[in-house]
């Protein structure tokens, strides 16, 4: 047993690669162990023990051959590390027993042998080290305390220290005994814990590890850095924009010395992957691991708990549902108190939750339920960390309730919130389903006021906008229909303005992190000039160009109305273009984007035509996703049942950026049979 005693075991070793100040930096194995017992009480030195260790690879470096004089043939006859460690333990125990002693102090000439070689290699080979290798005395540091003028401890060599140390052992043993004031320790295991954003983190103690397997946990990272002491809660796994691990982690050590040794493990291996290790800052660590939520702090206050992350939970799942899913073989710490559901700021569930388990066995039983079904969904389970809990909560709690909308118009222009937004629609929902969902409020919908939002693939996104006759009607619908069921899903209903609706229907992204502008440069939306938009007084000619409809391929001149006037062409509101112009960064390197058209019962328009346009007998339709081998007959067959002007024209365009085929059919006059 290692302790502060009057018996020392001086320990030395060498690897098959670099030695000295670079010991352990090349990930080479131990090939030699040397030890000797020193009895300070009797002023005696025991027999020098020298044992070879058989490595998995007997390829020796030139430095190793020169310093040790060993050959590959000799090492092939040696015992493996596990046997040598047993031999060391038995030899030291027997010699101590002969001296009538029960404890000793392990002494090394620097921490590298213990921290950078022995512990990492034993961890990779799944060996259990004797307790003595978790507490030791660094003779270089002790010598530096006695002789401050000798220079930094890391620069001292055994040769420069040997004579002085032997003199102290023989002449002043009591002095050495009482001056062993600093004992180095190696943590048995990594301790998880919470970190506050207000906590001071020294940048000289933080590193960034890159290239980690995505399934690695904080314990796996601590095992990679075995031998070095990581601060409590000092492993922060980084997440990408989708909330998944990106193969990076920030690790905080107890001091700069351990951080410097961690940097020497650059490109060491975790399994078959090499891990890159770089310096990082305290600010980076706090950004990932720091938190301010009292709920999270209370959840993480329980010591020595194993954390499991559950992803994909039904939004209606209750704590009892989760406990039942995990089963009695995976009891959660403190029942429902050991569950933490991740929610948006408005209280909506995200489908994520964190669970605490008291021991590794319970956590392993829970992980066996990975991708099993709860309700109608399969649930993913992963090992997690306290830092990941903070990171996920910080991300979701900082998400806006709705989207980050563009700046409002000047104060003198009031915003009318006469629209509603439906979110969470079944993907199979049609306009008839929406009208049935609205019930008695359908009479308050403007003509052609139902707009389904499609994604860039032309499929339903689960969102829709409805134009109501007044803001009061929109408010009433939002109050009465919010979270009302449609088929097997509840639908959220929010009141919004026409500008917000227009922003989305023009191609702006509608997601949980905010509204993003459509990926296009505004001047590319339309040709440079268009005759149907004469410049109004006080408007520059270039401003008029911004108001042009993006779906028209060539200018058209007004035509005389027919006997049965057709509905006017559908254009986007000029005010929308103005808002887009003010709120989009014109220097963004976007490619041309074609907004997905909404679906309405009897029109292809987004909004009624601006009053400045004269009535026109035709309408223009863009087709997206046309098969590459489609011809004119196929397109005409597709529009069977609608009247097409006798002299129609179409063109096929190919977008190299999006690999889409578009058909532009000009002058199509839509009428039901």
From TrEMBL:
Signal peptide: none
UniProt xrefs under InterPro entries: ESRP, Nucleotide-bd_a/b_plait_sf, RBD_domain_sf, RNaseH-like_sf, RNaseH_sf, RRM_dom
GO cellular component annotations of the record: nucleus
The RRM domain, residue ranges: 205-282
Gene3D superfamilies: 3.30.70.330, Ribonuclease H-like superfamily/Ribonuclease H
Major localization listed first in the record, in broad terms: nucleus
Keywords attached to this entry: mRNA processing, mRNA splicing, Nucleus, Repeat, RNA-binding
GO molecular-function term, one example from the UniProt record: RNA binding
Subcellular localization, as worded in the UniProt entry: Nucleus
Any GO BP annotation: RNA splicing
Role summary: mRNA splicing factor that regulates the formation of epithelial cell-specific isoforms. Specifically regulates the expression of FGFR2-IIIb, an epithelial cell-specific isoform of fgfr2. Acts by directly binding specific sequences in mRNAs. Binds the GU-rich sequence motifs in the ISE/ISS-3, a cis-element regulatory region present in the mRNA of fgfr2.
Similarity annotation: Belongs to the ESRP family.
Full protein name: Epithelial splicing regulatory protein 2
